[in-house]
Amino acid sequence: MAGRSAEPRLPKALAAVLAGAFALLGAADLASAAGSRTGHWEVLAGLWQPHLDPGSDALIGVALVVIARGLLLRRHNAYRVGLAYLAGMTVVVTVWVRAPRHVIGLAVLAACLYLARQAFPVPGSPRLTPSLTRVLLVAAAADAVCGTLVMAMARGGPHPYKHPLAAGRVMLDGFVGRRVTMADPYSAHWALPLLTAVGCVTVVVLLAAVIAPPAVPLDGTRSRAGLVRALADRIEGSTLDPFALRHDKLHLIDPVSGSAIGYRPMFGVALASGPPVGPPGAAFSALSHYLQHCQAHGWRPAIIGLGPPELEACDRLGLRHLHIGDEAVIDVGTFNLATPAMRNVRQAVKRTRNFGVTTSVQRESDLTGRLREQLLSIAFVGRGRAPERGFSMTLGDPLSGRHGDSVVVVAFDSEGEPVGFQRYAPCRGGRALSLDIMRRVPAAPNGVNERMIADVVAWAAERQVDQISLNFAAFRDLMDLGSERNRLQRIQYWLVHRIDRWIKIESLYRFNAKFHPVWLPRYVAYRSPLDLGWVLLAALTAEFSLPIERFSGAAYGTDALAASLAQG
Questions:
Q1: DSSP E strands, 428-546
Q2: CA–CA separation, 416 and 431 (whole Å)
Q3: Domain-embedded: residue 167
Q4: 3-class DSSP state for residue 526?
Q5: Mean per-residue pLDDT for 356-373?
Q6: Is the domain of 100 the same as that of 192?
Q7: Cα–Cα distance measured from residue 25 to residue 29, given in angstroms and rounded to the nearest whole number
Q8: Distance between CA atoms of residues 516 and 454, nearest Å
Q9: Are 277 and 176 in the same domain?
Q10: What is d(CA 246, CA 390) in angstroms, rounded to the nearest whole number?
Q11: Most C-beta atoms within 10 A of its C-beta, which of 192, 317, 401, 500?
Q12: 367, 218 in Cβ contact below 8 A?
């Protein structure tokens, strides 16, 4: 964008050079620990520190590699840790080892790091101390358990000590890689390396906790539901716009275009969903502002659910993209149950009528208290023990009253008791609806979901609603290929088919295909192939509500959060 200048390349280059220096020194220490004390590795390692025990060299090498990664990501806490490490090593070399020649290399590297301090702008967490304290306590407990088990399995124990405190000292020496003497030489061959490996894991965990970027925005960014709701109500908007209002999403407002992006930080990934909510043609400005926001916080940017119009902006911004599936959208004007292509849906609807099923379509705000409780019970029964899923195409908080303008269709059995319901979020100025929740009790007649969709389409046709978005069909192309799949595609389809009982990818696609919808391709945009693993972890955790990342949606994205951040 003309009004936004790109970040100077020099700070990035300095960060990369210093990260490379730390990584090279870490590799030298690891090679030295592995026994490569000859040739170039010995010269390189000997320039900046004296040779230590192999375990200590390994510990230092692992620490330097972790610091190098933090420097490459331009995190300020990595700069601080690196500088503190060099200062501490200088003291050790000067006071205890008394090797002045090593001080020169340490001093040069420390000076270069200090002079380039402006190249590391990514801040750390404002609440580092409580988090680090918890990590320290957990790590100490885990180390104590692992160390005790190792010492108990080591035959003969430490030599010549028999007291528990002496064994503890040997265990600590093993953690930091120092040589210790044990009564049984065989035990020493495996016990000490195992203790050092535990120490290396501990160092990685602690450094990762210190160097990690903030888990929440540092600038008080919070939920702006009122503004986003107004933006999502534009006629020229997208059928995914309402889902930016999900309760656990923060909103970043682009000051240039006025567009909003709903996102959630997870595992160092700022996971956004859907195209930017705002005026047409504002994708480049909104995504550019979003990338700057992610860079300032040290997050990996990722956007799920982008459509073809946004891909040009992604290309201009250097983002990569992958086709991940298609959104199923019913064209209300052409939908006709009487056509031969709709035979399966027509039979399902007829079956429910034979069972005496009736439906009612109303706004969520018009639901009576008793009916709301019954529908919440259906949502719980239909979900079972599984958590409420969804991130990119759900609003969450079912029937909480927060989205009173949502359209709710309820199916009743022959006795007038509700057996299923669906909720649709209005968008595009009321010209479209997007399916949010679809629940039914297990005992409901087959075809209840098809019946509710058909009746919602009929209801929409009377109110000038021209589009109804159903679900997202992941890997639709893979499902459609049939016998034309190549070997890799056959393997992919086999995997998808085997896990379908848990994530319902194929089942959902087959259900959507019954309605012969218009398929709108959707993409995920990301920065680098190296980010894909983290993006996948964040996306799966968010979409399937995996318990590996704790998140308090009730407090997150509120004014209370902004106040706590300001105090932090």
A1: 432-440, 467-474, 518-526
A2: 31
A3: yes
A4: strand
A5: 92
A6: no
A7: 6
A8: 13
A9: no
A10: 10
A11: 192
A12: no
Does 286 reside within a domain? yes
519 & 532 share domain: no
Pairwise CA distance, residues 374 & 371, whole Å: 5
Considering the domain architecture, whether residues 471 and 424 belong to the same structural domain is answered as yes
Q: Report the candidate in 415, 518, 401 with the shortest Cα–Cα distance to residue 468.
A: 518
At position 70, the amino acid (one-letter code) is G
445 & 356 share domain? yes
The answer on 561 and 412 residing in a single domain is: no
CA distances from 429 to 234, 332, 345, 425, 544 (A): 5, 16, 29, 11, 30
E strands, 17-70, where?
none
Alpha helices per DSSP H over 360-473: 369-383, 448-461
- Output b/e per residue, 146-179; b: 16+ Cβ within 10 A: bbeebbeebeebbbebeeeeebbebbebbbbbbe
Read off the DSSP letter of residue 442.
Answer: T
CB 184 within 8 A of CB 155: yes
| Residue 4 covered by a domain | no
| Tens digit of each residue's pLDDT (9 = 90 or more) over 367-421 | 998 999 999 998 887 665 555 667 888 887 788 888 888 999 999 998 999 999 9
Task: List pLDDT tens digits, range 90-144.
Answer: 887 777 666 666 677 788 888 889 888 888 888 877 666 666 777 778 878 877 7
Q: At what angle do helices 185-211 and 128-153 cross, to 10 degrees?
A: 170
Task: Look at residue 444 and tell me if it is in a domain.
Answer: yes
Domain boundary among 64, 96, 119: 119
Beta bridge partners of 468: 330, 433
- Split into its structural domains, the chain has a count of 4
Q: Which amino acid belongs to residue 140?
A: A
CATH number for 479:
3.40.630.30
Q: Could you tell me the pLDDT band of residue 559, with boundaries at 50, 70 and 90? A: very low
Domain boundary among 211, 239, 270: 211
468 φ/ψ angles, rounded to the nearest 5 degrees: -130, 115
Same domain membership, residue 360 and residue 438: yes
DSSP E strands: which ranges in 179-312?
A: 250-253, 260-266, 269-273, 300-306
d(C-alpha 245, C-alpha 397), whole Å? 11
Cβ burial, residue 88 (10 Å; 0-12/13-18/19+) = exposed
Task: Measure the CA–CA gap between 66 and 62, rounded to whole angstroms.
Answer: 6
- Helices within 221-336 (DSSP H only): 225-232, 283-297, 308-316
Domain hosting 376: range is: 328-523
